[in-house]
Amino acid sequence: MKIGLISDIHGNYEALKAVLGELDAMHISEIYCLGDVVGYYPQINECCDALKSRQIPTIMGNHDWYMASGGMCLRSKSVNDCINYLRKIITVENLNWLSTFPVQRKVYNIHMVHGGWSDPIDEYLLKPSDEYFSKIEGEVFFSGHTHIQLLQKFDKKIYCNPGSVGQPRDGDPKAAFSVYNDTGEISLHRVKYDPQKLFDLMSDGGYKENFYNILKTGTLNPVRL
Asked: Which residue segments constitute the domains of the chain, with CATH numbers given?
C-alpha cells in the first residue's frame, strides 16, 4: 500500500497536473488532499474538477473555507484581493463541493488536518515538537498550510507536511508532495512544471508582480501573501 499526500494547490493547475502525473508514474492511485484547493491563482475550476474526477478525498483548508463560507482573511489584503477575483470565476458546482469538505480525516493510522490539531483549519504548525504531539492520540500525522515541506520523527510518532503543490515557500519552486507506505516510511518529493500558462492567466486577471515572483523562486519574502 502506498498513499500520495498533496496540499495547498491554490488554483495552480499546471503544478497539480505535474504532481498527479508523477504519482501516476509511481503507480500510486490512493491520494489524499490536505486542503486549500483554491485561493491565490485562477485555475480553481480546473483544480476542483481534477480532484473530483479522480475522487480524491479532500479536507477543508482556510482558503477553501473563505470561498465556501463567504468569509474573508483577517490578516492579508492580498488574499482578499484574490478571493474577490476568484469568486467571480468559480462555478456554483465547485463552490458547493468545497462546502462538503470535512475539517479532519483519519485513514489507516494517519490523522490528517490542514492546519494543526489545536485549529484544524488555520493553525500554522511551524515547529512541531514531541511535546505537542504527546497530547494527541495517534501515530502518524499529516498537515499542510505552511507551504513548507517537512518530515519530523519523534520517539513514537511521526509528522509530515508534504509541502505545497501550487505555491511552495521553502526556497524550492518545484511542486511538492509526499508518499506514505504500509511499512511506515514517508518520502518527500518535488517535481518541475511549466508555469507559463498560469502566468498568462494571471496577467489577464490583473495579478500583481509579487504573485509571479514567489512561483519563480519558492520564497515568500519580502512580500507576505
From this structure: 2-217 (3.60.21.10)
